[in-house]
Amino acid sequence: MSRGPLHCWTSCKELAALQQVLQSDFCAAVREVYEHVYETVDITGSPEVRASATAKATVAAFAASEGHAHPRVVELPKTEEGLGFNVMGGKEQNSPIYISRIIPGGVADRLGGLKRGDQLLSVNGVNVDGEPHEKAVDLLKAAQGTVKLVVRYTPKVLEEMEARFDRQRNARRRQQTP
């Protein structure tokens, strides 16, 4: 079977499209997550650990391809002023841990990369997804040097969580008012 000029044109067009995808921000984010997983997990360990790390990174990649927010790595230097953001939520509140505030002029604000509404997934390779608020705060306070955070931008969930907290706060105030 002959592969004529039309086949070459189609292949070149597909190759150009593939090249565009591979150079996209999406692919860069997926690569960064994979690299972070393999830096923070001992991949020389058991096949089960390697498989789990690969599975988690693959799920992140597929979630991103489906239009869901995908995890990304943000590195911030820990200074005397801290990291420049606040967190809220946690297991005890039946919610993920979120970046609730970026302190104006703080490290996170000056360097960018972190956004209000980011869900905090890990701190220096330690998973905080589904963990108590205090664990995340302790890890952030104890961190030194460059702090590596894995986050996922999900502002709608943060807004829902804040609205729920506001309703609970208002209900408590009404109960306390004679």
Automatic annotation (TrEMBL):
- All copies of domain PDZ, residue ranges: 73-155
Where is this chain's protein located in or outside the cell? Cell junction; Cell membrane
L27 domain mapped to chain residues: 1-45
**Which InterPro entries does the UniProt entry name for this protein?**
L27_C (IPR014775), L27_dom (IPR004172), L27_dom_sf (IPR036892), LIN7 (IPR017365), MAM_complex_regulator (IPR051109), PDZ (IPR001478), PDZ_sf (IPR036034)
GO biological process assignments: exocytosis; protein transport
Topology term for the membrane:
Peripheral membrane protein
Gene Ontology CC, one term = plasma membrane
Q: Which UniProt keywords apply?
A: Cell junction, Cell membrane, Exocytosis, Membrane, Protein transport, Transport
CDD domains tied to this protein: PDZ_Lin-7-like
Q: Main subcellular localization, coarse class?
A: other
Q: Which Pfam families match?
A: L27 (PF02828), PDZ (PF00595)
Query: What SUPFAM superfamilies does UniProt report for this protein, alphabetically?
Result: L27 domain, PDZ domain-like
Recorded hits in PROSITE patterns, A to Z, give:
L27, PDZ
Family label: Belongs to the lin-7 family.
Q: What is this protein called?
A: Protein lin-7 homolog
Native source organism of the sequence: Ridgeia piscesae
